[in-house]
Specification:
There is one protein chain. The protein is mainly alpha-helical. It contains 6 helices and 3 strands; from the N terminus they run H-H-E-H-H-E-E-H-H. The chain has helices spanning about 5-25, 30-40, 45-55, 60-70, 90-110, 120-145, and strands spanning about 45, 75-80, 85-90. Strands 1-3-2 form a 3-stranded antiparallel sheet. Strand 2 (about 75-80) and strand 3 form a beta hairpin. GO terms for molecular function: DNA binding; DNA-binding transcription factor activity. Keywords: DNA-binding, Transcription, Transcription regulation. This is MarR family transcriptional regulator.
Length: about 140
């Protein structure tokens, strides 16, 4: 019996555990790192647009934003032109934390792949992207049926 799927799942879990430990050291959970990344890419952005970019429900984003605002990582303010719009951006503390987390994640990747050649890393990346594309297509097809 081919156990490639089990190995893939177990490896993903181990990788997730590494990431989880890093995020917990900042009193964050994994999804909040995506929020850091999207805000870093977008700068100041409306809460509605941010939920769309992250492909999450606005209510889910609201809870994330409230939690991270309490910790001083992000700030919210009303748009000057349209008071109905809430704009979100990273604070300096949030920018520094994002940089620190990303450095730790990069360090993990360096340790994980230290015994791999560049060619092996490229091949693995290509295969993982193919798997990801296939899974996304399968999910899309399932949702359309």
């Amino acid at each position: 019996m081919d156990n490639t799927g089990s190995i893939f799942t177990d490896t993903a879990r181990l990788h997730h555990r590494y990431h989880h430990n890093i995020f917990m050291s900042y009193d964050l959970y994994r999804g909040q790192n995506r929020l850091f990344d999207k805000l870093s890419e977008s700068g100041e952005v409306s809460q509605t647009e941010l939920a769309r970019k992250m492909n999450i429900a606005p209510a889910t984003l609201t809870r994330m934003v409230q939690n991270m605002e309490k910790k001083g990582y992000i700030t919210r303010k009303k748009d000057k032109l349209d008071q109905r719009i809430t704009l979100i951006s990273l604070t300096p503390k949030g920018q520094n934390t994002r940089s620190s987390i990303n450095q730790k994640l990069e360090d993990i990747d360096q340790r994980i792949f230290k015994n791999f050649t560049e060619d092996e890393r490229r091949i693995l990346k290509d295969m993982l992207l193919r798997i990801q594309d296939h899974l996304l297509k399968e999910l899309k097809d399932e949702n359309n049926n």
